[in-house]
Amino acid sequence: MQVCPLCFSKASKFFSAAERSFFQCSQCLGVFVPSIYFLSSEEEKERYQAHENDINNAGYQNFVKPLVQQIFKNTNPSDKGLDYGCGTGPVAAKLLREKGYDIQLYDPFFKDEQRILENKYDFIFSCEVIEHFHKPQQEFAFLSSLLKPNGKLFCQTSLFSEKIDFKNWFYKNDPTHVFFYHKKSFAFICEKFAFKNFEIFRDNIIYLEK
User: Fold this and answer.
1) How far apart are CA 193 and CA 210, in angstroms?
2) Mind listing the pLDDT tens digit for each residue in 5-46?
3) In this structure, which of 4, 57, 138, 175 has its CB flanked by the most CB atoms within 10 Å?
4) Which value, to the nearest 10 degrees, does the dihedral of the CA atoms of residues 127, 131, 135, 138 take?
């Protein structure tokens, strides 16, 4: 038996592949891989360094624009923001800064500056980050603690649903992707960490408000 790392409920085997097995939570319906399949920190960092995240690449900018547009819609340039898990190419932060936003950057592999995490923020965004969380409940608790009252959290990730052909779903094949969120997973996050509400856009952008 496995226990869901997000809501700590019981989980059962969902799918097995040659490389690793996947389990699904009985409560939040998230799908995850057990910790025995996690890459080492060194292996994980090497994989991220191989990503082509050129902040000036038009295709990469277009990829994050829906997330950035939601941030524009729900915040103001006077708000203080944090790019949590900015990686080697913080393109969303670049697009926001070009509009006058004050954005700080943090990444445990590439910009591990603890002073950044000593502040409170009006909003936080994580673009293609939360699927990498080894301990998602702990991570969301921490992100919630960094938000000011009425703060906002924006996440971009590919959501899992019953409509997905999991066997052929490309998103599961990245060995650094270890947790796949269902809509019910965000319902749990919303309630557990006292967000007022949450909304899902385009099946991959999640907005939560304190």
Assistant:
1) 9
2) 999 999 999 999 989 999 999 999 999 999 999 999 999 999
3) 4
4) 40
CA triple 87-108-159, angle to 5 deg: 60
Name the pLDDT band for 60 (thresholds 50, 70, 90): confident
Strand order in the sheet with 197-201: 102-106, 80-84, 121-127, 147-156, 205-209, 197-201
Please give the full DSSP string across 48-116, using - where no structure is assigned.
HHTS---TT-HHHHHHHHHHHHHHHHH--TTSEEEEET-TT--HHHHHHHTTT-EEEEEBTTTB--GGG
**Amino acid residing at 84:** Y
Q: Are 18 and 31 spatial neighbours (Cβ–Cβ below 8 Å)?
A: no
DSSP string across 4-64: -TTT--EEEEEEE-SS-EEEEESSS--EE--GGGPPPHHHHHHHHHTS---TT-HHHHHHH
Three-state DSSP state, 174: coil
Residue whose structure tokens are 């990498």: 132
What type of residue sits at position 23? F
Q: What is the pTM of this model?
A: 0.95
Distance CA 42, CA 75 (A): 36
